[in-house]
Design goal:
The protein is α/β, with parallel strands linked by helices. It has eight helices and seven strands; from the N terminus they run αααβββββααβαβαα. It has a domain of 167 residues: Trna Endonuclease, Chain: A, domain 1 (3-Layer(aba) Sandwich). Helices cover 47% and strands 14% of the residues. The strands form two sheets. A five-stranded mixed sheet has the order 1-2-3-6-7. Helix 2 packs antiparallel against helix 7.
């Protein structure tokens, strides 16, 4: 046992002396994140996975929603309400994540000649709206007790999976319907679990590129690196962000 311990110690010293300790630490961290993405994907396809399963994974990995978030570890902020995954943004404000099942259905449905979001989405959004109102009304106590500013906070609802609940509906139709729905809401965004998984993979790839700029350069000299966008729909079929100066309506 002492021999094994001594070997590990010398190995660590050798890595540190070689100047590659930071690289190894980054590699191990990124591999752990890949494992966590794999666990999320497995949970998505498990019909027995409920909100608690996703909650445990996402509490450990708030980076899947973006690098600007950290978990609060405090789910009960308002009396009578327990939030799934409350996150803290870079400016110290609160961001709520409301989780629903990955097999929730229907995400969208046909209404006359148009597509609209399904009842499960409306219910999840209405629940989240009540949470936001409660936080707004109790702002002063929350700031004093937790040091978190809930004023005009934003929330994300994660619900359904495009390949599970709506296999007969074209993918472009589902994304376009959700995008239209989101465009009329100022404080709540609805996304699907397949979109969350894609965002997690993209976040990990961009992190790796930022940590290894000499590899991301690919011999292009001053070529621009990967563009970081705030649009959660970027990269999905049928998405047209339009001109940058185009008004929202």
């Amino acid at each position: 046992m002492d021999s094994i311990s001594g070997t590990r110690h010398h190995l660590i010293e050798a890595i540190q002396a070689s100047g590659h300790a930071d690289f190894l630490a980054d590699y191990v961290t990124n591999e752990r994140k890949r494992v966590e993405i794999g666990l999320l994907e497995m949970a998505v396809w498990d019909p027995d996975s409920d909100e608690k399963v996703f909650q445990k994974i996402l509490e450990r990995n708030p980076w899947m929603f973006g690098g600007q978030y950290v978990a609060t570890g405090q789910r009960t902020i308002v009396l009578g309400d327990q939030f799934d995954v409350p996150l803290i943004t870079a400016d110290g404000s609160l961001h709520l994540v409301e989780l629903k099942r990955a097999d929730a259905s229907p995400i969208v449905r046909k209404d006359h000649n148009h597509w609209i979001v399904g009842g499960v989405v409306h219910e999840a959004v209405s629940q989240t709206q009540n949470y936001l109102r409660s936080l707004d009304e109790d702002r002063h106590r929350i700031v004093a007790e937790f040091g978190i500013d809930p004023r005009r906070l934003h929330a994300t609802v994660v619900i359904g999976h495009i390949d599970q609940a709506n296999s007969s509906i074209p993918m472009d139709t589902i994304y376009e319907t959700l995008r239209t729905y989101n465009s009329f809401m100022s404080r709540i965004t609805v996304m699907t679990y397949d979109q969350l998984v894609t965002n997690a993979h993209n976040a990990l790839e961009m992190l790796g590129a930022a940590e290894n700029p000499e590899q991301a350069d690919d011999g292009q000299g001053d070529a621009a690196g990967p563009e970081v966008v705030d649009d959660p729909w970027a990269g999905f079929p049928g998405h047209d962000p339009g001109p940058a100066d185009e008004p929202p309506f």
